[in-house]
Model the fold of this input.
Amino acid sequence: MSQLEGRVAVITGAASGMGLATAERFIAEGASVVIADFNATNGHAAAERLGDRCRFTKCDVAVEDDVAAAIALATDAFGRLDIVFNNAGVGGAFGPITEINADDWDTTFAILTKGVFLGIKHAARALIAQGTGGSIINTASIAGRGGGAGPQAYSAAKAAVINLTKTTAVELAEHGIRVNAICPGLIYTPLMHSGDVDDADRVMQEFQPLKMRGEGHHIAGCALWLASDDSAFVSGEEITVDGALMASGPRIHGQAKNTRNLHRNVGIAYGTTGQPAVNTRLQR
Done:
């Protein structure tokens, strides 16, 4: 029997990258999936390809009504809810701390941290009302576990996700709801390589102890375990999936071409949302 037979999941940021890989794996394991993503073009294409057990809704995870609508679509289309994977993310604000625009900082936290808060809030409401427990999974990052693995705003927002995971795991345990976080390292997605695949491979080979490419399906496998009954006694954990990068002491921020000169620029990166990055060269 498939591990998620008959279960229903909502996955944010599932139009590409780790979220899409997870949607594919969940459907292969018998689940029905709602893809909630800001990028409508990619989202509709993914849902159409994945078939009758998949729906798409355009979702800005920083907007509460959008998140609530994604949760409601799951119960309306498939009759129940079992799993919510709060995965949507962007690269966010970058640049020297003395130059980062406060609005860009707020936008980064709105997507990366507020988006997870809203996902947990509305998932918990639906799961408590349903009365059958469930699994909430949040995408954090090794950047949230220490310095050297990401820009300031991104790292701080992901650290908040880790703590939010722990506090809500305790709060929701009485309802049989488990809350866990996945902390990816270098995962080969459009958000990570920004189109320069050769440089992404170089950085992985140079800085990552396990000499293999981290792929979306590695995160999907971890998410599958956290969504399944095999992890029934696991809650409040942050699980690192990084090829031993964190164990070696990450020194990766500023090594890839798309991050190497961030100290000379300031702006915000919107990842795969379809919105163009804002990047201003600093005058020194």
